[in-house]
Amino acid sequence: MTAATPARRHHGNRHGRSEEARQAVLEAADDLLVEKGFAGVTMEGIAARAGVAKQTIYRWWSTKTDILMDAFLQDATEDLTPPDSGDVARDLSEYLRRLAWFLGETDSGAVFRALIAQAQHDPAFAAEFRTRCLDVQRARDRLPLERAVRAGQLPAGLDVPAETDRLVGPVYYRALVTGEPIAHAFTDSLAEAFLHHHGQAARPGS
Amino acid sequence: MTAATPARRHHGNRHGRSEEARQAVLEAADDLLVEKGFAGVTMEGIAARAGVAKQTIYRWWSTKTDILMDAFLQDATEDLTPPDSGDVARDLSEYLRRLAWFLGETDSGAVFRALIAQAQHDPAFAAEFRTRCLDVQRARDRLPLERAVRAGQLPAGLDVPAETDRLVGPVYYRALVTGEPIAHAFTDSLAEAFLHHHGQAARPGS
Amino acid sequence: MTAATPARRHHGNRHGRSEEARQAVLEAADDLLVEKGFAGVTMEGIAARAGVAKQTIYRWWSTKTDILMDAFLQDATEDLTPPDSGDVARDLSEYLRRLAWFLGETDSGAVFRALIAQAQHDPAFAAEFRTRCLDVQRARDRLPLERAVRAGQLPAGLDVPAETDRLVGPVYYRALVTGEPIAHAFTDSLAEAFLHHHGQAARPGS
Amino acid sequence: MTAATPARRHHGNRHGRSEEARQAVLEAADDLLVEKGFAGVTMEGIAARAGVAKQTIYRWWSTKTDILMDAFLQDATEDLTPPDSGDVARDLSEYLRRLAWFLGETDSGAVFRALIAQAQHDPAFAAEFRTRCLDVQRARDRLPLERAVRAGQLPAGLDVPAETDRLVGPVYYRALVTGEPIAHAFTDSLAEAFLHHHGQAARPGS
DNA sequence: ATGTAAGCGAGACGGTACGTCCGGTCTTATT
DNA sequence: AATAAGACCGGACGTACCGTCTCGCTTACAT
């Protein structure tokens, strides 16, 4: 938590909510998802594991997916930050590998997949999810290409959002739809084909 | 319904199940999904709308997603058949357009997305879903490239499954993750980039 | 249960409810009232102790007091039947003693007091309680005087309901309001004063 | 309350409790009981209506019935004071009429009935209620007979408490149990029978 | 033709989780 | 030191579905 904050420890308080309770809820939700799967994430279960009253949960979140969104926002950045070596080829390739790992192997990635799944089931949630979570994620996904354009390594007129979708799309597809493990060869060749198509020769020693 | 079977109308039957009940259940599940969303699809609701006893549903299906899988298998082929004009460029482009439309606009597509979503939430279901539904779908997705290879329009050594994933991945990504409408320009340029990369010049008049 | 009915034992049934569940609920409610007091009678507690689902309770009863009414109706008659020796003085005296014992000492009496209490708190309940329980009880209370009138031991024009209230009123008052134990002397002198006032000399050997 | 205290309006106070808050709570509880019935009297509701913090209530009262007891003690005396004309017959008859009206028609009477009801549900409360409220009330109920004995209008050896219970018992019974309206004829004949039994002829012109 | 057995609509059952309400406790800032 | 405000934990409320069960009816085959 905010390291600056000294010992907290309070139950109920006129001014503001309990940070302790907030953390406990987010962690409980996260843990339950990983341990028992999405169906195992229940409001009752979260409350019990977090040692928190249901009312406290409903005071600050409206649904369990709302909680998972908060948990995701708190954790995702740690696991998934695009590298920035200055070399497009290397950065792109590395980022796609990292994205594949994030989506398929990490706890945050599991939360993310659960949220995307829920967005299929519930349009209202989908809208909120896109605003609060997905836009952040997509901005991260665009970073490698944006940097390369700024650095002059890619043409200035490049349609970065569309090109990003083409690059990361197959990775998400594998993670979400086929569920296959994603080998480095797969992501590397995605990067290579992209750079080749845009007149950027693959680096010899890649 | 199996056209051979004449008018049925029966309650109970020693030998074999009621085709009437089967159809009613599949349609009820489909309708509920479209009308009320995934959360609105409940066993009780299906039973009530189909005019069928819950026990009859449980006799033949184990979960509501099991029902939706049957509904999908019955409907999907009608909506999504790859074209076969003999021209790779034209067929590929057309198929990607059709896939985008299917995933984003049709009722069957909505069912498909719901099933993919459920596969995120439930690994056991995921396995069954992949065997029963996804493999069929992926086979369909591979058809254009497979035909082109057979016809000599693409190199014989092409890794068709991987290349297919790279082609359709961005379409699924748009449909499942971003939820954006998918313009023809997007799918067309996917096809074009693919053909260009494999030494197949885009047709002049495309 | 109707002793004639053979072995029952069923879970769910198109035709009619489970007698087993019904009994279990009534007994659980009764037991909880005696053991833990009125506040200890909760729908959850009844369900848990009866080994019954809450939904099953709500299917047949609307409130916990509704359950207690059924429990009362089933048990009260056993504990409280007016004697009929043919001698007014003896019967009246005996009945008042028995009534005092019933209200103050028995489990059924405790249920009855709880219901009267609830009737103070809830007018809608009061109406139903009076119709379903109290009228039965008052009819019982009137029996000794009615028999005496029929037997010619009391004047034919006697206002039996009003006289009954005057007789039993003090007993209920002691039981409900003061909570004091009710000595035989108290009820006996009630009977004696009543008979004396109506020109009926007290029996010598009472 | 303490009429001496001047105008107030304060939040917090170094010296003693807020008389304002006390009054507001008692009135809120009273009003809620009359408006919404016993179930509508909740600590939260009282606090909200009185514009008082829950903690303030809990500082001075332990339960909502504790509040209602205070409210009763504050109001009851106003509504129910035994008359003292010097004539037993008249005073007794008048007091029973007044008691019937108090129990059945007044707001204080409604509070009193609610407290008696609660005493059925909760033995601990019953004990406190009898000490703090009921003894006062019974003392009031005994007054007419006590005065008559002192004035020589009734025999000196009369068991006043028991006789009082016999007199008022039927009135409480009608008010609490049957819920019927209590006609003057009913109370008058109670008084008459009592006096007749104790050798006191009814006054001719009553 | 008739008995038997499987599938059927109906619906009660024991459960789990839902989202809400209230009870009582605690902390904070104010007066 | 007492107050208004209100967040906190706990637990009962009444509801919605879950998946299982029993029931009595309908039907088609196998006697």
From TrEMBL, chains A, B, C, D:
<dbReference type="InterPro" id="IPR011075">
    <property type="entry name" value="TetR_C"/>
</dbReference>
<keyword id="KW-0804">Transcription</keyword>
<dbReference type="InterPro" id="IPR036271">
    <property type="entry name" value="Tet_transcr_reg_TetR-rel_C_sf"/>
</dbReference>
<protein>
    <submittedName>
        <fullName>TetR/AcrR family transcriptional regulator</fullName>
    </submittedName>
</protein>
<feature type="domain" description="HTH tetR-type">
    <location>
        <begin position="19"/>
        <end position="79"/>
    </location>
</feature>
<dbReference type="InterPro" id="IPR050109">
    <property type="entry name" value="HTH-type_TetR-like_transc_reg"/>
</dbReference>
<feature type="region of interest" description="Disordered">
    <location>
        <begin position="1"/>
        <end position="20"/>
    </location>
</feature>
<dbReference type="InterPro" id="IPR009057">
    <property type="entry name" value="Homeodomain-like_sf"/>
</dbReference>
<dbReference type="InterPro" id="IPR001647">
    <property type="entry name" value="HTH_TetR"/>
</dbReference>
<keyword id="KW-0805">Transcription regulation</keyword>
<keyword id="KW-0238">DNA-binding</keyword>
<dbReference type="Pfam" id="PF16859">
    <property type="entry name" value="TetR_C_11"/>
</dbReference>
<feature type="DNA-binding region" description="H-T-H motif">
    <location>
        <begin position="42"/>
        <end position="61"/>
    </location>
</feature>
<dbReference type="Pfam" id="PF00440">
    <property type="entry name" value="TetR_N"/>
</dbReference>
